[in-house]
TrEMBL record:
Statement: the UniProt record of this protein carries the keyword Cell inner membrane: no
Keyword DNA damage: no
Family: Belongs to the TonB-dependent receptor family.
Subcellular location(s) per record: Cell outer membrane
Residue ranges the record marks as coiled coil: none
All residue ranges annotated as the Secretin/TonB short N-terminal domain in the record: 63-114
Organism: Azospirillum oleiclasticum
Secretion signal, residue range per the UniProt entry: 1-32
Protein name: TonB-dependent siderophore receptor
Compositional bias annotation for Polar residues: 143-154
């Protein structure tokens, strides 16, 4: 049962901060807005129908356009090309159309017939928005769906949401999902280099695979066969901090990351790129698509990537093949069906696989033999390999029944297959006084994770008096089947300071776990977003879930089943000032049926949690900046932690009781001057185990720092001899953090700061770029208990890109 804590000094301080934010601003009367200050954006739109052009402009500029939809039908728009403000782009697009635009606020524009001698005609407002439904202006997104499952301004969402746009990912040259969220508040990517998976924590909560979503549906996962995503195939990433169970069912209390795939548009997309980097990195990619029918009813897109690369660690590769075809069909003006598929194969090498674990002594702790080299592979090249294949197919269906009701359905089937074995490092041999001998085991994991997810929603936009509503009803279903065989047995030791490979090693004849875990969940949910007098936004939602888990363990011949029912919800209140300030408060709960297999018996209890959050969001007039400040208090019960007996049970987990995280997040995405943008974040986390049956009571979790911060600056020269040149640079700071949850063998890993840099030259059709991460080649690492692995050293990647 969730216990509501007393009103502590933390809560009083948080409330005081919110009251200060409220008192700093005063509401002003609603008035017609002048043209806001706006950053310039590169537009390249072909001549096309006016409604399609407006859709593309709204997507690009982050605007909401209001007009009567029937007045747009049949009208044409001229081609639009150049670096313009959204206001300039609208004026050119509407020239000669018989329409003019007027600003209602910084991000909302109304369209009306051009004035005549008889005066202008007032139109009934109808929202016409971009194809993705979420505005983007440069690196700044002003809208998101993850926080509500409706197209909602970030300013009106009563939880902290960070959005990483395609433009931001390209500017920083991100290669992994960890890289993509590295400059976001409340998010802690692992410092380690591990091509198998993206280890990310949210608001101090230990990593949880229930946090990963793609296009609104949860990604399948198992103990080792976990889904990964290629960033080049994404339009954007949205990180929702705190519980999301009311909308998504089983999720972590800490938050979710929802990734949106690239989709077809009627605006042509033609791009090819080649990358060349250190560690013998060669990569090619393409993204092509556009209208496949003259009337724009059919659009197609194909995204692909091929990478061949070594790595900083001997024998470990980072090879990938990725393909993602999609097709959008719009049979009527009210219906859109988008079909999407993907294929991804990751191969870390048939003679190296992964780098295995290295001992803490010689990396994080002193060793008389010095420091273990970053390129050292603790595995066995002739034995190790890692091959993972992922494939998915699904669709999004949207239909507007009338001006009030619309329905949507998202479906996806995804499969992950894994073959993986390695000589697994388990620490230095205590019998060796020279402290050179790494003990190793033979480890293997073979299996698959299959998942079917369906989310069906009905949405109504309606009003009563001075109140407007966006009401959502939904039902979702997911079924996940995990089949895996895991092996763990003795292996030969190795001198880790002067490794000599070639020792005989083999997996045990019998697995320690050979099981099928099937989970099914069905959820019913309802939400209402009520805007009262254009000032107050009240968000209320509730959800009921039924979750079933069946475990069949073939090694012991045992089987277990478990069924859970839970009610979760969220309540939030936001106040909208005219000057773009929006303070808010919210409470939410979470529910996470645990599908990880329990090596000691019956399935784990579900984890439950709750969050209180207050904060303020600021979007000054002009829409080119967004500031967010939030304080939060989260609690989760039935938390999984590693078995303290790692020697005899290195893969065992136990449920230790309760975990609490309190903190402060500050984040800003801002246009400082014309051409100069900044992304900054700071996070303070006070996280600890508050109930436990082990020796971790009162401890912060492994890998979680109290303080972290980041800043990225990007400047594009607007004109003159340097026109087309852009410079970028950033710094990421991670504070000291513990190596284990336990009090036994606990030490603090040192804080570090990593610098990144970028240089680009864009001619319009071609772009040359140079990205450097970890510019100073700083040595960083992460440790779990007495096992550590290094983070990425200096990485240099040159890119040549052509768009047409």
């Amino acid at each position: 049962m969730v216990t509501v804590p007393s009103f502590t000094r933390f809560h009083r301080a948080a409330l005081a901060a919110a009251l200060v934010a409220l008192s700093a601003v005063a509401p002003t009367p609603v008035a017609a807005q002048p043209v806001p200050v706006q950053a310039r954006i590169a537009f390249d739109l072909p001549a096309q129908s006016l409604d399609t052009a407006l859709t593309a402009l709204a997507d690009r500029a982050g605007l909401r356009l209001m007009m009567r939809s029937q007045d747009v039908a049949g009208r044409m728009a001229p081609a639009l090309s150049g670096t313009l403000t959204p206001d300039e782009a609208l004026s050119r697009l509407l020239a000669g159309s018989g329409f003019v635009h007027r600003y209602i606020n910084a991000t909302t524009v109304t369209l009306a017939p051009a004035p005549s001698s008889s005066g202008a005609v007032t139109l009934d407002p109808v929202t016409v928005e971009g194809a993705s439904g979420r505005g983007v202006q440069g690196p700044l997104a002003t809208r998101a769906t993850s926080g509500s499952k409706t197209d909602t301004p970030l300013l009106e969402t009563p939880q902290s949401v960070s959005v990483v746009t395609r433009e931001e990912m390209a500017a920083r040259g991100v290669a992994t999902i960890k890289d993509a969220v590295g400059y976001s508040a409340g998010v802690t990517p692992s410092a380690s280099t591990d091509f198998r998976e993206d280890l990310i924590t949210f608001r101090g909560y230990p990593f949880d695979w229930a946090s990963a979503f793609l296009d609104g549906l949860q990604m399948p996962s198992s103990t080792y066969a976990n889904s990964t995503v290629e960033p080049y195939g994404l339009e954007r990433l949205e990180v929702m901090k705190g519980p999301a169970s009311m909308l998504y069912g089983q999720t972590s209390t800490g938050g979710i990351i929802n990734m949106r795939s690239k989709r077809p548009t009627t605006t042509p997309v033609n791009e090819v790129e080649a990358k060349l980097g250190n560690h013998e990195r060669y990569q090619g990619a393409f993204d092509v698509g556009g209208a496949a029918a003259a009337d724009g009813a059919v659009a197609v897109r194909m995204v692909g990537l091929l990478r061949r690369s070594a790595s900083e660690v001997e024998f470990v590769r980072d090879d990938r093949v990725f393909l993602a075809p999609s097709l959008a069909w719009r049979p009527t003006d009210r219906t859109t069906l988008t079909l999407m598929a993907s294929y991804q194969r990751d191969d870390l090498g048939d003679s190296g696989g992964t780098q295995a674990f290295l001992p803490a002594s010689g990396i994080a702790l002193p060793n008389p033999n010095g420091r273990i080299g970053r390129s050292t592979n603790g595995g066995e090249p002739d034995f190790d390999y890692y091959r993972k294949t992922q494939a998915s197919i699904g669709y999004d269906l949207e239909h507007d029944i009338d001006d009030t009701w619309s329905v949507q359905q998202t479906l996806r089937f995804r499969r992950v297959d894994l073959d993986y074995q390695t000589a697994y490092g388990i620490g230095l041999d205590p019998a060796d006084s020279t402290q050179r001998t790494l003990r190793r085991s033979a480890f293997g994991s073979f299996g698959s994770a299959r998942a079917l997810g369906i989310d069906s929603r009905a949405q109504a936009r309606w009003g009563t008096g001075a109140t407007t509503h966006v009401t959502l009803f939904g039902v979702d279903y997911r079924r996940t089947v995990v089949e895996e065989r895991n092996y763990f047995g003795p292996g030969p030791s190795i001198d880790i300071f002067a490794p000599v490979y070639g020792a005989a090693i083999a997996l045990p004849a019998r697995p320690y776990a050979d099981q099928t875990v099937e989970s099914r969940q069905i959820g019913l949910y309802a939400q209402d977003q009520a805007t009262i007098a254009e000032r107050w936004v009240l968000t209320l939602g509730a959800r009921w879930d039924r979750a079933e888990t069946d475990v069949s363990e073939r090694t012991s011949g045992t089987a277990f089943s478990r069924t859970d029912h839970r009610l979760t919800g969220r309540a939030g209140l936001t106040y909208l000032f005219d000057n773009g300030v929006a303070p808010y408060a919210s409470a939410a709960t979470s529910f996470t049926p645990t599908i990880e297999p329990n090596l000691y018996g019956a399935p784990y209890e579900p984890r439950t949690g709750r969050q209180y959050e207050i904060g303020v969001k600021v979007q000054p007039p002009g829409g080119s900046s967004l500031f967010t400040a939030a304080v939060f208090d989260l609690v989760q019960q039935n938390v999984l932690t590693s078995d303290p007996d790692q020697v005899n049970h290195p893969f065992g987990q136990i449920q230790t009781g309760e975990f609490r995280s309190r903190g402060l997040e500050l984040e800003a995405k801002v246009t400082l001057v014309d051409g100069l943008t900044a992304t900054g974040a700071y996070t303070f986390l006070d996280a600890e185990y508050t109930k436990s049956n082990t020796d971790n009571l009162g401890n912060a979790p492994k890998g979680i720092p109290k303080h972290s911060a980041s800043l990225w600056l990007d400047y594009a020269f607007p004109e003159g001899v340097a026109e087309g040149v852009s410079l970028g640079g950033g710094a990421r700071y991670v504070g000291e953090r513990p190596n284990t949850d336990s009090s036994t063998g606990r030490f603090m890993m040192p804080a570090f700061t990593v610098l990144d840099a970028a240089l680009r030259y864009d001619t319009g059709g071609y772009q040359l770029a140079l990205n450097v991460t970890n510019l100073t080649d700083k040595t960083i690492y992460d440790c779990w208990g007495n096992r550590c692995w290094y983070g990425q050293g200096r990485t240099v990647v040159a890119t040549v890109k052509h768009r047409w």
